[in-house]
Write a structure and sequence with these properties.
Blueprint: H1 23-29, H2 34-51, E1 54-56, E2 65-67, E3 70-77, H3 79-103, H4 108-111, H5 118-121, E4 143-152, E5 155-162, H6 169-182, H7 184-189, H8 198-207, E6 220-223, H9 232-242, E7 245-247, E8 252-255, E9 258-263, E10 266-269, E11 272-275, H10 298-303, E12 308-310, H11 321-324, H12 327-335, E13 347-348, H13 352-360, E14 365-369, E15 379-380, H14 386-398, E16 403-407, E17 413-418, E18 421-430, E19 432-436, E20 439-442, E21 447-450, E22 466-472
Parallel strand pairs: 3-22, 6-7, 6-11, 11-12
Antiparallel strand pairs: 1-2, 4-5, 4-19, 8-9, 9-10, 13-16, 14-15, 14-16, 17-18, 18-21, 19-20, 21-22
Helix pairs in contact: 3-12
Length: 475
């Protein structure tokens, strides 16, 4: 490698030997001509541009639509390692859904004193309209993304829960398709679990949650805000792959107690709506009256059992980083077990003692907004300027309840391809989880996001990160 790894390197052990999971890949890689690999690297970028795999960056004057960089060195996870992760993910997702049911019903976990009432009392993501209502099939988060980071051989931590509308699955699928098109012989040498079945599994999982009003095979649609949304490519991609309808709010109306879709043969009822718009814009009669993206009256139909909305309104409460800090208690309360996947150590700045510690150690910590996402609104203490630290100090003192703090983790690295050879970069992992009355289904792999800048810990595409194919080896 051209650069020596400073943290746990997933491909190379100390001394430079290749770890077992990467044995097959490295054997293939070492046999390739470097100039051919460079051509393939350029070819991959060209392929992504032709396919139109881009995302929008809001608030930018230039280059609003950007290509997410793709790295062609896969991230490889052994079969045994993956099985351990699956057990931990299943446990956590089951606890999340049980927590949401409880939060909108008897709130036993609050009565038991395990979490404070303030967690949702002033939380805009908690919806009064969902109180006492159970979604069809009893599922709140049908599609979940659990962000994981690794710090050592057997040291995985949950960094974040995405229970509302986790994005990025289209990149997981396109990354694999690109790799298989460019290097078909590689997949004949290394036995990798497939990910291409995800759209079919998603369609089946959503159909299994169809409401009582459904007659015959459920009709499923993806509800998108439209072409100007940052994830529109993904909305269209998933609808196409699932064989589902792609609709905007203007295509739908409430008629005869059902949500119906405009077609060339008149209006036809929908059974399941995989919505990719936020709660606030879902129903102007219930939430934001100025919304032009949603469907007037959809919440009345939903509560009457006439349609399934996935993910359920109000699930965003579990994306809150203050709620995240209580996940060990939440997992234990609903499963009776200790978490198999631990949280990253977290200080809740709403607590006086924690705030005092955080203010004394800003230079060493990562500070996050409890409602933040996409890498925005963060302070990474070790790389921040004195001015940035001073600004954040004022924010914390003014509204401490808006922030949590975590240690700066020594994230694992995997190599990326550069013109001068392989170089280590920090990564995280977002496995995708489907939940239905039939159980929990986890696609073997997920989206690996990689910080392409040397030394950077920020992997978000909106902050300059890229993606790579994630391989789970077969036994």
């Amino acid at each position: 490698m051209s650069e020596a790894p400073a943290n746990f390197d997933e491909m190379y052990a100390e001394g430079g030997s290749v770890r077992p999971a990467y044995g097959g890949y490295c054997e293939w890689y070492d046999q390739q001509d470097p100039s051919w690999l460079k051509r393939k690297h350029r070819e991959a970028e060209s392929n992504f541009r032709k396919t139109g795999i881009t995302f929008n960056v809001y608030g930018e004057d230039e280059a609003e639509e950007r290509l997410i960089p793709f790295d062609m060195v896969p991230r490889v996870i052994g079969a045994g390692e993956w099985r351990r992760l699956v057990r931990g993910i299943e446990q956590r997702v089951s606890a999340l859904n049980a927590f949401m049911y409880d939060l909108y019903h008897r709130q036993e976990i609050i009565r038991a004193g395990r979490v404070p009432q303030r967690l949702f009392q002033n939380n805009a993501a908690w919806l009064q309209q969902m109180v006492g209502f159970t979604p069809p099939g009893g599922v709140y988060s049908h599609i979940v993304g659990i962000d994981l980071v690794r710090t050592g051989p057997d040291e995985w931590y949950v960094l974040e829960d995405n229970a509302r509308t986790p994005s990025g699955v289209s990149y997981m699928l396109e990354n694999r398709e690109t790799m298989m098109a460019m290097f078909p012989e590689l997949f004949s040498q290394v036995d990798v679990e497939p990910v291409a079945t995800y759209p079919r599994q998603l369609a089946n999982s959503l159909a299994a949650c169809a409401p009582p009003a459904t007659k015959g095979k459920p009709t499923v649609a993806v509800l998108t805000p439209g072409i100007f949304n940052s994830a529109y490519f993904e909305h269209a991609f998933l609808a196409d792959q699932m064989g589902a309808e792609l609709v905007e709010g203007s295509d739908l109306r409430v008629m005869d107690g059902r949500v119906q879709m405009r077609t060339t043969r008149g209006f036809q009822p929908l059974d399941v709506i995989y919505r990719r718009i936020d709660d606030e814009y879902l129903d102007p009669l219930t939430f934001n009256p100025d919304s032009m993206l949603g469907v007037p009256g959809i919440m009345d139909v939903y509560r009457a059992g006439g349609v399934t909305i996935a993910n359920a309104p109000g699930t965003g409460v579990c994306d809150d980083k203050a709620v995240y800090s209580f996940m060990p208690e939440i997992v234990e309360f609903y499963t009776g077990e200790k978490p198999l996947l631990p949280n990253v150590q977290t200080w809740r700045c709403a607590d006086e003692d924690s705030l005092a510690y955080v203010l004394d150690n800003l230079e060493e910590l990562v500070i996050k907004e409890v409602h933040g996402s996409g890498g925005y609104g963060m302070l990474i203490g070790p790389t921040a300027s004195k001015k940035e630290i001073a600004t954040f100090r004022k924010k914390l003192q003014a509204t401490p309840e808006n922030y949590i703090a975590q240690p700066t983790l020594a994230l694992s690295t995997t190599p990326i391809f550069t013109n001068s050879g392989l170089a280590p970069r920090h990564v995280d992992l977002r496995p995708y989880v489907l939940v239905s009355p039939k159980g929990v289904d986890i696609t073997p792999g997920g989206l690996t996001r990689v910080a392409l800048k040397k030394g950077s810990l920020v992997v978000n595409s909106s902050q300059g990160g890229g993606t790579k194919d994630t391989w789970v080896l077969k036994d």
